[in-house]
Design brief:
Blueprint lengths: L21 H27 L3 H7 L1 H8 L12 H28 L1 H20 L4 H29 L5 H26 L6 H7 L2 H10 L7 H6 L3 H12 L5 H15 L4 H5 L5 H16 L2 H6 L1 H7 L4 H25 L5 H26 L9 H19 L2 H12 L5 H30 L2 H20 L11 H4 L24
Helix pairs in contact: 1-6, 1-7, 1-9, 2-3, 4-5, 4-6, 4-21, 5-6, 5-8, 5-9, 6-7, 6-20, 6-21, 7-8, 7-17, 7-20, 14-20, 14-21, 16-17, 17-19, 18-19, 18-22, 20-21
Length: 509
């Protein structure tokens, strides 16, 4: 029996009746394993690429450079093929996201998640069993296909299945599982680094566990009512809606979804519809959030945390342990976002985090600029620990803001007729700039040295200005009411909606 937690709306932002059912929570947890896959991969890459056994086998030139006592502190890992090991996944995910958009619309969110898990399992087999660099890169490409499909389907699934009042919290479970995946990866790397010569194979192989969980678990969960109704399974959609809401009377919400689906059917080419001015507000917001998310510098830190901590003076084991600490901070800070996002709102968390991340980046940059010389000894123990604290402060701010909310807002702001296509642009933008940062970071670290932190700090200032002026609040607004209650009310974006002769008002009771 569902717990008696009734979700109701305010007069300002009407909501639909329904309970927060146990079944919805189970669906959310299973779907969020897609985030665990993604997070584990983010966390595992940096640790594996800092393991001597892995470098000796696949990147002997990097291994020899690392052993050079007088080698430039900032440049000992600068190798394009080493960066390609990490970044090729995101290039593959970029390409896959557009195919995933079509599958998501035509076959549903559930099947898209199953396909993602199968791609990921193939990738795990190839990378963990890799005997040469080509096999390793091919495996990473399959992992990328899995990430592209999962990142397309999971946030949409979560937004469509969640009651409006807790949509933010449930959607952020995707990001929470990403952070848990990063933490698990850091723990695995810490222990696997002492298993010679195949500890790196263990690290890469364990990635198959969340993929298998998603594959098997997705058999048990339902399709979203929106996806079913969109594909003309009207009665099944209404039945599922009753099941996930825990009540019989779902007519108001059902009518709103049905109306949105009827509007969507009139759009034969959603990608062309996205290019029209009326679609510009959610599209620009979605793409900018993904670009900004990467230019905070978070993935540079998460990919290469062990490498970064070795650069500032930690030994191999200590560097991996420091990565575990940042992973713990990441998880617990994301839990803060789960609690606050539907209370404090999206904009408040984004703006607060800009200040916090800016301060930590600037202080870290100043310390390294003054104390870490290219060919001199590393930082003192106290200075290195302080850098870890600043990195944790940065990760903390990101984890309760730009990390989860960067995925949440694009998943909830597109109207149904362009939802899958629009989110495909969001995912592909994220993957493109993740690829750029992953491919360029070690080279940037070599050339900019401590200046790399000031580079990211400059972007954080731009993000804050953008959020203050151009990002509307979406807290508590039903997904299919965004056009009327958000874009048409915003001082800037409403001008793009003036000629919205395609869409009639969505019925909101």
């Amino acid at each position: 029996m569902a717990p008696a937690v009734v979700v109701s709306g305010s007069s300002e932002n009407p909501d639909f009746e329904g309970r927060i059912t146990v079944y919805v929570i189970v669906c959310v947890v299973i779907a969020a394993f897609g985030g665990l896959m993604f997070g584990y991969d983010i966390g595992i890459s940096g640790g594996v690429t800092s393991m001597d056994d892995f470098l000796k086998k696949f990147f002997p030139v990097v291994y020899k450079k690392k052993q050079h006592v007088l080698e430039n502190n900032y440049c000992k890992y600068d190798n394009q093929f080493l960066q390609l090991f990490t970044s090729c996944l995101y290039l593959a995910a970029l390409i896959a996201s557009f195919a995933a958009s079509k599958v998501c619309t035509k076959a549903g969110r559930k099947l898209t998640m199953q396909i993602a898990s199968i791609f990921f399992l193939i990738g795990v087999i190839l990378t963990a069993g890799g005997v040469n660099l080509g096999m390793l890169i091919l495996g990473r490409i399959f992992l990328g296909f899995g990430v592209g499909f999962a990142n397309q389907a999971v946030p949409l699934f979560l937004s469509e299945i969640a009651p409006t009042r807790i949509r933010g919290a449930l959607n952020i479970s995707f990001q929470l599982f990403i952070t848990i995946g990063i933490l698990i990866a850091n723990l695995v790397n810490y222990f696997a680094s002492n298993i010679h010569p195949n500890g790196w194979r263990i690290s890469l192989g364990i990635a198959g566990i969340p993929a298998l969980m998603l594959c098997l678990g997705s058999i048990l969960i339902c399709e979203t009512p929106t996806s079913l109704i969109e594909r003309n399974k009207i009665e099944e959609g209404k039945k599922v809606l009753r099941k996930i809401r825990g009540i019989e009377n779902v007519d108001d919400e059902f009518d709103t979804i049905l109306h949105a689906c009827e509007m969507a059917k009139q759009v034969k080419d959603p990608f062309r519809k996205l290019m029209k001015p009326v679609s510009r507000p959610p599209l620009v917001i979605a793409i900018c959030l993904q670009v900004f998310q990467q230019f905070t510098g978070i993935n540079a830190i998460m990919f290469y945390a062990p490498v970064l901590f070795q650069t500032v003076g930690f030994r191999d084991d200590a560097a991996l342990l420091s990565s575990v600490i940042t992973g713990l901070v990441n998880v617990f800070s994301t839990m803060v976002s789960v609690y606050l996002v539907d209370r404090a709102g999206r904009r408040f968390l984004l703006l607060e985090a800009c200040v916090q991340m800016l301060v930590s980046q600037v202080i870290t940059g100043i310390i390294l600029l003054k104390e870490l010389k290219p060919t001199a000894d590393s930082l003192s123990k106290g200075e290195a620990i302080f850098v870890v604290i600043m990195v944790c402060l940065f990760v903390m701010g990101f984890a309760w803001s730009w990390g989860p909310i960067g995925w949440l807002i694009p998943s909830e702001t597109f109207p149904l007729e362009t939802r899958s296509a629009g989110f495909a642009f969001a995912v592909s933008s994220n993957m493109l700039f993740t690829f750029v940062i992953a491919q360029a970071f070690l080279s940037m670290l070599c050339r900019l040295q401590a200046g790399i932190f000031f580079f990211f700090a400059g972007w954080i200032i731009i993000m804050g200005v953008f959020t203050w002026y151009l990002l509307p609040e979406t807290k508590g607004i039903p997904v299919d009411s965004m056009v009327d209650k958000v874009w048409k009310q915003h001082w800037f974006w409403r001008s793009f909606m003036a000629n919205d002769d395609f869409r009639t008002d969505v019925k909101v009771v």
